[in-house]
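Onboarding guide, step 5: your first structure request.
Type a short instruction followed by the sequence, for example:

Predict the 3D structure of this protein.
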Amino acid sequence: MRKTKEEIEKLKNASALTDKGFAYICQQIKPGMTEKEIAQKLDAYMFSLGASGLAFDTIVGSGKNSSQIHSTPSDRVIEENDIILLDFGYVIDGYCSDMSRTIFVGSATQKQREFYDLVYQTQMNAINHIKVGMTAKEADLLGRKPILDKGLDYAHALGHGIGTVVHEELVLSPKRDTVLEKDMVFTIEPGIYLENEFGIRIEDVVLLTEEGIVPLANAPKNLIII
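The system replies with structure tokens like these:
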């Protein structure tokens, strides 16, 4: 589960290319587009940058569809004042990227802003406090407790290992006792999903070092309104 220096460099490069994909798609999204069109544009751009394949099927969930953890892009049309959950990853030089961002079109409601901040603070709590020697379930709790404290939870692990495949053996879950070691690479992806309302997820690939977590992605995580 630990990565070599060469593998870490390839994973960094994959995440850097995915950063470019997120910046690109934020410039492209407009009311009137469908979820499918957004996914197709993003995929085509990433292939033009050198991606050799999808790490998994690109997720674009807007409006109520964003409340589905793994939605499939549909013909739903993006509207003014919409919310859009994006989850995407690509195979680059044999290694996978994986990123989730949630963005807003036109405006965000006060409720959406509050929940976005909660997910962001939860992810940062995990990024700032996960250390070598912790168990997977201890790490999971760091990326879950702020949400639990609000009487909510999410029905997936905090994160998973990543490398030549997008889901490797390491799982940050309440059910796993795996001890975290230096040079492990995994995702941190807390979320909130309010059925038939909206969902918010923020996900980054990170490297665990002796000093703590180092994010490999640099795409902005502030609340983005396009």
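Each response can be followed by summary notes, for example: The two ends are 38 Å apart (CA to CA).
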